[in-house]
Amino acid sequence: MKKFKNNSRIKSPTRGILITALLATQFGFAQENQNAEFKGVFGKTLADSKEYWPEPLKAPKGAPNVVWILLDDVGFGASSAFGGLIDTPTFDALANNGLRYTNFHTTAICAPTRAALLTGRNSGRVHVSGFSHTILSAGFPGWDGRIPSDKGTIAEILRESGYNTFAVGKYGVTPDEDATDAGPFDRWPTGKGFDHFYGFLGSQTDQYNPDLVEDQVHIKPDGRHLNELITDKAISYIQKQQKAAPGKPFFLYYAPGAAHAPHQVAKEWSDKYKGKFDEGWDVYRERVLANQKKLGVIPANAVLPERNPLIGEWKKLTPDQKKVYARFMEVYAGFLTYTDAEIGRVVNYLKETDQFDNTLIFVAIGDNGASKEGSLVGTINQSLFAQGTSDEKNLQDNLANIGEIGTPQGRNTNYPLGWAQATNAPFKNWKQDAQSEGGTRNPLIIHYPNGIKDKGGIRNQYSHVNDILPTTLDIAGIKAPEYIKGIKQDVIQGSSLYTSLNNAKAESLHKVQYYYIFGNRAIYKDGWKAAAAHLPDSFAVKKSLGSNEKPAPSNFDTDVWELYNLNEDFNERNNLAKKYPEKLAELQKLFDEQAKENNVYPLIDWQDVYNRRIHNTGADKGKTVSDLIKQATKPGGTNN
């Protein structure tokens, strides 16, 4: 009999039966393993099986609709809801029937604020210490601009909890290389939990010719103002959703491009302010301070900081300067009032459809302090950071083209620095200045008729933009999921404001917070704050970059740290660094710990990133710093 070396070739009935049994067992195990969440019974036939249908996703009974409103580049002293001289009747009404939070903080610039807001985590922890734009990101965990999947957004959480989710307006945290119609779309709003999105993915856009996206496709705008477009779409989303599923709660994230540059608005709005700012920015600050004291949103003994030395005293300006500078502010004011009116359309629709009382509304009036990017004299058609021309010539150009301010032709309209300081009253400094309350402190309104009893109340608890997510979940009765789409979720770092809704004396739960933007940095703990401005100041640096000279390398060791007791000195007028060196050292050590925990290191400022791109990136190799700024600030570009 012939023998075979490989006995696997021997055919055996017994062996076949064993193999069949083994395969059947493995198949059954595999079937059960694939359907681990299946709670029925598998049988060989339908007759000896038990069906199982998972319960449909449902929000908790009575869960509120949720509306988050986030404005762009609006200082603490702009809106009339917080004592400013710009009329915002919608915000006034929401604040008067809700709560004003006076000690709320953002990150000092747009993308990090939005990343922290959407995730409930610090911006560095979610990889957005800078931007998602290619020329302003870097290849480190805190800096690559790509929010990881284990840092789920509020939209992902609420959709998993039975909500429909909509976003309109500015998104700002999609990487540039993903922002085409070819995707990939996992970092578009629709890939981060939103059922629908209508707006723009970048950081700024023309208001009449926006870089417009609907869901996952770029579309052509029709010439109407972006505020009108996003408001129409927001109302449409709610209408269609409620018709299909009456009573199902929705989440709306409403983030207009306003009032970021370009400041563009119909003359009917800007002309409402004709002559209203002729007294200038010094008088504006004094009047706002008085209003804020009457409202109770600042201490009764508050004093304004000294005028910044970069800014001229209004009464000493020339008639031409006053004329053109006042017009810039008229346009900005009209832009903000118009934005308030468009938000009012959403509010009125909720009232008309009996959804208003059970809608939780958050209004953050600004994602940072007022913008300092309009230079000392203002801009109309292009960024002065890339021109290299004198202030006097730019002033004359603005005067000659004064009729274009605020129009579709004014493609980069932004007011002069003096108005940034004025609309930031009572704080010093402005946007980008993460070391200062002027860069990070913004008004917050919470309105919820079914849940707030203290109508018109003032709340002074320290809070941060990453607190809004956990506060929303607490009010809605929703627990943050351990997993989203099978991915275990990282800890949520924000602290809930829930206990403060009906208790003005509730403890401030947010005890520690770091800040870092473009080298400017700070650390807060229990009312104390240590802060360091990174010099040369980024405004001065940008303005000097009309030449092609390479900026000097950053030197963080020479930055001077200051110390403030915000409980006694809320607008940082009394530097205590020399008086309490031990406290300063303690906070500096805490900043180092927080920086390590939140991916802030390596410390990078914007000019470091530009220089790295110039020398190391293919598409940008050989370009000057000025070339890259022109690219970043072109109409419809990626300016912050």
UniProtKB/TrEMBL annotation:
State if S-adenosyl-L-methionine is listed as a keyword.
no
Per its UniProt entry, what is the enzyme's top EC class, as one word?
hydrolase
A Pfam family per the record: Sulfatase
Q: Where is the Sulfatase N-terminal domain?
A: 64-478
Q: Which InterPro entries match?
A: Alkaline_phosphatase_core_sf, Sulfatase, Sulfatase_CS, Sulfatase_N
Which GO terms fall under molecular function for this chain's record? hydrolase activity
The UniProt keywords, alphabetically, are:
Calcium, Hydrolase, Metal-binding, Signal
Q: What is its EC number?
A: 3.1.6.-
Question: Signal peptide position in this chain?
Answer: 1-30
Family statement = Belongs to the sulfatase family.
Q: PANTHER family annotated for this entry?
A: ARYLSULFATASE FAMILY MEMBER, BLL2667 PROTEIN
What name does the UniProt record give this protein? Arylsulfatase
Q: Which organism's genome codes for this protein?
A: Flavobacterium gyeonganense
